[in-house]
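chain below, 208 aa
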Amino acid sequence: MGQTDLSPPLGRHGGWAEAEPPCDNAAYAELPARPYDFLTLAVCRALPPLWSLLGLRRAAGMMRHYLRGTGSPCRVDAEALLALPAVRAAVDAQLAGWRAEALERWRAGPGGAAAYPADSGWRDALITRRVHPDWWLALRCVEFRLTGTVRVAEDGTVAIDYRVAVEKAWNFDRGGSECGVPFTPFARLHETGLAREFTVTGEAFGHA
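prediction:
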């Protein structure tokens, strides 16, 4: 019967204990709305139909959720995110690290089969326009955390069962920009109560 390693989980070096908190925008509905805020709102309402026509359905859905103003979490397809090369590469790098660390502990141990808990901590992967235009507009980057168990058989064969959790604060960072487009007018929609920031969540499971 194999032994379970009770020492600290594999892979936590470099990971964050918590997902990145929301940015330092003003609180929801803290600021008075100005006429130009309603102009920004009109522009944002025109974007989802346009993006949908262009096949950017995920981006359209995120903007609609922002404009609904509920602030409720929005669940995404984590399996589809894992299919993106940039995200898959980041996840595979963590799994490779787990595998190497588990084998190192196993070789230093008493022998026989062993199981090691693993936890990457929170990390991020950048999604660019070249990677996937729809996911880029929808998220721009994704924060993920892998947890799981690495099992090493008596012959040194390694198998990993893991869960990928996705969590991201969806907002426009005041003072930020993308492609020359300033984010502050869009952040003001949250700050004036015309839209509301929310959390993106998702999960997927895998075996390696």
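The mean pLDDT is 93. The first helix runs from residue 35 to 53.
thats it, cya
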